[in-house]
Design brief:
Blueprint: E1 2-8, H1 13-23, E2 30-37, H2 42-49, E3 53-56, H3 63-70, E4 75-80, H4 89-94, E5 99-103, H5 117-126, E6 131-138, E7 148-155, H6 162-185
Parallel strand pairs: 1-2, 1-4, 2-3, 4-5
Antiparallel strand pairs: 5-6, 6-7
Helix pairs in contact: 1-6, 5-6
Pathway: Purine metabolism; IMP biosynthesis via de novo pathway; N(2)-formyl-N(1)-(5-phospho-D-ribosyl)glycinamide from N(1)-(5-phospho-D-ribosyl)glycinamide (10-formyl THF route): step 1/1
Protein name: Phosphoribosylglycinamide formyltransferase
GO molecular function: phosphoribosylglycinamide formyltransferase activity
Length: 187
């Protein structure tokens, strides 16, 4: 059984998708062993409803060092699912190839500091992009610079707004996140 640690900052919809796909057998031979949040959020409640251990580490300069102390040694994968804190370089380097993130754009476009959530969708519309989508990528010390594992795109229409893009991107995230997790775990 492979152990997954999920980091969250918000409502935990991608966490829920991971839990659901594990329970449905779509992600095989794996379990969410721990959910860590950097603030009080509904993602912690989702984990508790499924009897998954949770830890809250308040956001701040010591977050990565505190996180390093509690990540079980037998962790096979660390998944950032709507996680908004930046992990320190040393933490990323210690877990090279074992940390993945989902990003609401087609990296390398619309990545980096400040490019999260609705900020991304506003930027896509303002830039007049013809397509958008989501990327699952490895986490490295550079923000959103890790190698892409999986991307999926869709056409941006003239009628699209940041809100409609967000809805479309979420659907793609729910689709590709479990596939990428299986790929990284070797399933």
């Amino acid at each position: 059984m492979k152990n997954i640690v999920v980091l969250v900052s918000g409502s935990g919809t991608n966490l829920q998708r991971i839990i659901d796909t594990i329970e449905a057998g779509e992600i095989q031979n794996a379990k969410v062993a721990l959910v860590v949040a950097d603030r009080e959020c509904y993602g912690l409640e989702r984990a508790k409803k499924h009897h998954i251990d949770t830890v809250l580490i308040p956001r701040g300069k010591n977050f990565s060092s505190e996180l390093a102390k509690i990540i079980p040694e037998n962790t096979d994968l660390i998944v950032l699912a709507g996680f908004l804190s930046i992990l320190k370089s040393e933490f990323c380097e210690n877990w090279t190839g074992k940390i993945i993130n989902i990003h609401p754009a087609l990296l390398p476009k619309f990545g980096g500091k400040g490019m999260w959530g609705m900020n991304v969708h506003h930027a896509v519309i303002e830039a007049g992009e013809k397509e958008s989508g989501a990327t699952v990528h490895f986490v490295t010390p550079g923000i959103d610079e890790g190698e892409a594992i999986l991307q999926k795109s869709f056409e941006v229409t003239p009628e699209d707004t940041p809100e409609t893009l967000a809805g479309k991107v979420h659907q793609i995230e729910y689709e590709i996140f479990p596939i990428a997790i299986n790929k990284v775990l070797g399933n």
